[in-house]
Amino acid sequence: MDIYHITQPTAPKVPIIISSPHSGTYFPPDIASRLKPEMAQRPDDADWFIDRLYDFAPQMGITLIKANYCRWVIDLNRDPESKPLYTDGRVITGLVPLTNFNGEPLYATGEPDDTEIAERVTQYYVPYHDKVNELLQQTKEEFGVALLFDAHSIRKVVPGIRQEPFPELILGDNDGASASAEIISAAWAALQSSGYEAEHNHPFKGGHITRYFGQPQNNIHALQLEMAKTNYMDTSETEYDDANASKIRGVLKGMFEQLIKTLQS
């Protein structure tokens, strides 16, 4: 199994790269055999079908990179030193998670030790981050600017993180540090006028990918969009729903149109 899959643009290329680090669901057999069977069969914390939701992007000239391995193998959106992203009491899953978002153990036996975690960093984490960096540098060289858009989803209610339901759309830019004001404004305006409940930098302000790669001073910008799975899945939040997804896909297309205009201006 490849570490990632890249879908190249089918229209004239624009300086946007969509990263989907959590939509993978594959486990290497050795890891799967040690997980609780119900966890391995249905890794609920995965960003199910996010790559499918955004599959229109190459037709807009956008490059898409998607991780193939489940975030429970290694979380590509965590600090490599496992420094916590938040300190407000929510459940924080680590670089190699041992529990799900609600604090339930993942492993039936053989939790990974420090040596295995280091091996997973080398085998899975580093190649993904190196490829994202390569794509960004190539894009910046070609256009003079690059935008990394990190695409995520989450169940509408996750008590381990907070008791109340999540907003439908959450734009994160590390409190304005990961992208220019013009780019942030273009994305936020599109989301505010979408008809969906939208929040900005709360309760998520971007994970490690957004915070690490976003360097607006070097013309490399990064945004994260977290969304409720109810935006594009069925009421059980387990299956993709084309009819439900069609509306949010229209919102996303409109947002990217505005971002492209901003980047080209």
Automatic annotation (TrEMBL):
UniProt entry keywords in alphabetical sequence: Hydrolase
Gene Ontology MF: a single term: hydrolase activity
Domain of life: Bacteria
Hydrolase among keywords: yes
Full protein name: N-formylglutamate amidohydrolase
UniProt source species: Flavobacterium zepuense
